[in-house]
């Protein structure tokens, strides 16, 4: 999906980002399993994946920051 088609985040939504790199020695299936594990146990979702000329996968994960609001 191109950047032009992305919707801007809703007002008040904050994201936490995590950058992960995988060398070319990891197969596609192994990378998928590792990312699924992080998504299921950490609440992360995939933001973007870049594959470099050397075969390195650079992945950016994100999750919402939920701030507790004190009630009166």
Layout of secondary structure:
Elements: E1 14-22, H1 28-42, E2 45-51, E3 57-65
Antiparallel strand pairs: 1-3, 2-3
- Binned strand content: 25-35%
Computed structural class: alpha+beta
Order of helices and strands: EHEE
Largest sheet: 3 strands, antiparallel
**Total number of strands:** 3
Individual helix count: 1
- How far the N terminus sits from the C terminus, by CA atoms, comes to 43 Å
Low-confidence stretches: none
Return Rg in Å. 15 Å
Total discrete domains: 1
Shape: elongated
What does this protein structure show overall?
The protein has one helix and three strands. The protein is of the alpha+beta class and 72 residues long. The protein has one domain. The chain is elongated, with a radius of gyration of 15 Å. InterPro entries: DUF5703. Pfam families: DUF5703. This is DUF4177 domain-containing protein.
Throw out a few tags for this protein.
DUF5703; alpha+beta; 72 residues; single chain; 1 helix; 3-stranded antiparallel sheet; DUF4177 domain-containing protein
In short:
It is built from 1 helix and 3 strands; from the N terminus they run βαββ.
């Amino acid at each position: 999906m191109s950047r032009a088609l992305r919707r801007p985040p809703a007002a008040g939504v904050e994201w936490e980002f995590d950058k992960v790199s995988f060398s070319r020695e990891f197969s596609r299936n192994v990378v998928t399993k590792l990312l699924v594990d992080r998504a299921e146990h950490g609440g992360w979702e995939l933001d973007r994946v870049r594959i470099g000329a050397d075969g390195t996968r650079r992945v950016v994960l994100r999750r919402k920051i939920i701030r507790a609001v004190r009630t009166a």
